[in-house]
Model the fold of this input.
Amino acid sequence: MIRFILLISIAVLSSTSAFQYGRHVPQGESAVNYIYGPEGTWKSISSLNYHFNYYEQWATPNHPFNKGALIDEANGSQMFTARDANGFLLCDFNRDLEISDDAGKCSFAFHEHSGKGVNGNNRGNPFTQFWLDDNWLARYMSAAYGRPHPDGLVDQPGQFMRWKPIGGDIVNWKTYGSNHFDTLALDGLFYIKNNQVSSAVTKWNTALILSQAQYDGNNQQFQYRGIQENYHMALWKILTDMLLATTQLTAANRDLMLQHSVSLRSQILENQQKNSRNEPIGWISNIGQDTSLINTESVSCGTLALGADAKFVFEADRAPMIVYKEHNFFVRPYHAVSAVVGLSTEGFLSSGPNWNFPQGSYTAEFILRANKPTDLIAQLFIYDAVSMRNLANKSVYARDFYGADKWTSVEVRFDVTSAQNSLDFQTFWTGFASLDVAYVKIK
Done:
């Protein structure tokens, strides 16, 4: 079996950063590979132009407002920038609202979209407009997945930048106070960082109401008819997971938020586009709209949401994890693996990834659900194939579950003391009660 050596990358971009993002395997990583690939939005900006402004409020005599002209020019044949929604300009190192005469500092960045839509098919010309705010957001993704960072990001001291709370940076940041999914999530992250968790919970509850969440018993997950944009769903999941990472939630809130975190993840995975080779790529902007396009903002938010509050997240039903189908386990459409009493046989339900981890202390969080918890339901192992021993293990009983048919977080702490290792995160099913495994999060 092939062993992989991991490079842990965490989105810590400033001393004020408080939130952690890691690699989601395989779908998050596939989306990152796509956006950096030939059909993505990662391009050279060594010949960047600035002619027109997209937003009327930032028009100047030298750079008038002409949205149509900018769209016509930035059609893939040339690379352009303009002031973003907050008024900032990419590659403006002198902070004079002009591209600085220093191309060496501006080599690569992400443009808005490549004209790709559903299934990665061509829907029109690319929009090779490089926004500072899109690239500020994308930099968190780049850090989390260990990829090159976009160039030309110049902070404006004392100025408002909408995406900073994603990284936990709230210096000079003001809350929106409006009831849109993106502003609710960003305000909530601000409140978490500002140690106002109750205010963040209020924002989360407002988002829950607006989401029109309804439980779909057939697919065993929530559906969210009130969420129309993929990046809104992703931002709400980020807020959810960062709240779950706090120690100030009530047991009822923690239970409720975990159920939605798992469902939001499942919806994000379902909404991810696949190319002609059935490979996961990016997310279109508007959910279910055939004319919508895959853009940098949606891919950045989607990949961050899938890896929120983690170093790594491994889906139980996808490689590099292994499902032991000889025991008649079931891969479910709601992105989980099931063992069913009377149909499945006792044994290892899911295991993997057989990767080499850097030395250090970790927590493996197994996301489990039992329909009728009883007795000893599962045993969890952190197994090292090199030393052929368990670094840690835990028995999971009915009392450990939040309740019947409730997703439950079970944590196993372990230490990696040898550089020579190959770790598997194993779920052994005892056969006493039907069990689902969604994913394993390594923190």
